[in-house]
């Protein structure tokens, strides 16, 4: 395939390595950990730790693959641009639009979720007003420039990381009896109540389906690196430092939860961190955890507005979307791409008012398994581009270790996860709907895209 070029980007290189690192941490520490982990624990018991280890290993390899490709060819389109290089326009278009649609739906869901909590604090303010306020404020933050976005996300991430660290410290103090408690706590809970793996391998596998989605969001680092002064260096340092910290935060938090409480305690499914903090006798635990969850949702929403707008901008740069979305302001912001990415959030306010119980669950089902497809695309793309680089004698700034065995093993693990998903009715529905959406985007791309030479700027950002 011919080398691809696109117009030189007008985006600004304003993000710092520190901001990108915190974005990586913050992107993975979201509602999936604070809320979703409770469901995983209730399915697998203490053996959910194995599920987190497997999912953590997969995302570390996926991020290493992205780092290799970003270091060689930084791009605001990241994995969509790389798929374009590896497999052609239709693949790049499909992955770009699939990722954008996923984020557009998730942005609306996160605004709705945060509003549902804050509306209970001030009942006089209706939920729709909270949604509107969150969307307006975070959209404005993104429109003011990437530096402001970076600052927003940095402090969001600092709050979440501080909350996790405080939880880990208090948990260790309770487990070591420095802080006394009336509850029966300790590592004996790991083997009691049916043993370490009460659900056996099926329970571990079922929990893996939930856990795998908790790590979604870290991909934004590969997009953000293109708007830093040293993309290759920043992505390399971020992947090495951030991914191990994420794994530590996840495994450490879950270990403390299952040590403080019996895994089958109903309170864990409702809110694992709140339940654990209740054992620690932390005052105001309900309000505290709700505040942390709101911050987590708003942080993810902020990152997703950024990621969606940059992906749409990149797709437009490659003539896979209307050229209007490539308009960049004097502050280096693709303003029309930002506004296009939040339009559905305003529409969602009305939809939730008309069909509050059905709209968002249906939409989330459609994009629920997107992360598996995106990660599979990334693995296949890296295999193709790495082989091509080696064949052409290209010197890569960063190289994935254990190639190609590790890349192939990652694809096998993702395939096994997909097979497991097909055995669960809810997960099967998600996977089939997402697969259908992907096929529809690919078909439209094939039919609509005009034949033209694949030219893409190597320094697109």
Shape-level CATH architecture: Up-down Bundle
**Helix-strand pattern, N to C?**
HHHHHHHHHHHHHHHHHH
Question: Distance N terminus to C terminus?
Answer: 21 Å
Tell me the total number of β-strands: 0
Major pleated sheet:
none
The CATH homologous superfamily name equals Amino acid/polyamine transporter I
Runs with pLDDT <50, length 5+?
A: 1-9, 451-461
Over the alpha carbons, how many angstroms does the gyration radius reach? 22 Å
Helix/strand class = mainly alpha
Mean pLDDT: 82
The helix count comes to 18
Find the CATH topology: Amino acid/polyamine transporter I
Helix content: over 70%
Strand content: under 5%
Number of domains: 1
**Outline type:** globular
CATH class: Mainly Alpha
Q: Could you walk me through the main structural features you see in this protein, from its secondary elements to its overall organization?
A:
The protein has a single domain (17-445), classed as Amino acid/polyamine transporter I (Up-down Bundle). Helix 3 crosses helix 17 and helix 6 crosses helix 13. It contains 18 helices and no strands. It starts with 16 loop residues before the first helix and ends in a 13-residue tail after the last helix. With 461 residues, it is an all-alpha fold. Helices cover 72% and strands 0% of the residues. Residues 1-9 and 451-461 have low confidence and may be disordered. The chain is globular, with a radius of gyration of 22 Å.
Summarize the structure.
The protein is built from 18 helices and no strands. The chain is mostly helical.
